[in-house]
Fold:
Amino acid sequence: MKNNFIQLNLNDRNEIRADVNLSIKSLNIMGIERINVKIDTGCPYTSIPIKKLGISEEMALRMKLNDCRNDKIKKDISFGVNDTKDKIQETKRLFRAGFYQDLKSVTFNHTGLEIDFQGFVVHKDEVKVSYDRTGNILIGMDILKDWDIHMGTVTTGETIFLACPKERLNNEYFEQLDKLFGIERSDSGRGRKK
Structure:
């Protein structure tokens, strides 16, 4: 069934996750099926550890070396919550010197991200790819900031995440918003609680 919105349940680990189909056009990665992603409002940018897509260690290294040599691919560094001040300073120094291949925290910006949430397809022009990290695929605030999002516990006791990109708001989404949370659309287009 094709939906006109995204509806996900909070899991028993207090996470919002989904199995999606994923493509990254600039890497010729097309239609990888049933990849688990995590909705993460604490993550500023969507991040894809390439090995989570079934890419081997050897292939990931080759892809990273190609990106390191390509001046047209934008490179960034990203840090985790557990990185120390000293590690951050040393990483920044190596990054400025261009030692990208030695850094596990370097990300490479690629284009043409497509995420298919069981028939509801979301596009993003640019996405950060890591060839070294093996953690979760994170859907971050660079995507989520453009969505209308509601989350709460419904009468069944389930905690529901309901979302729709703002430019694609539709009647089915508003009907589900009313059904789950008792929020009906007002004449101004903004929701109001019953």
In short: The longest strand covers residues 106-117. The first helix runs from residue 57 to 69. The helical segments are 57-69, 85-96, 141-144, 171-181.
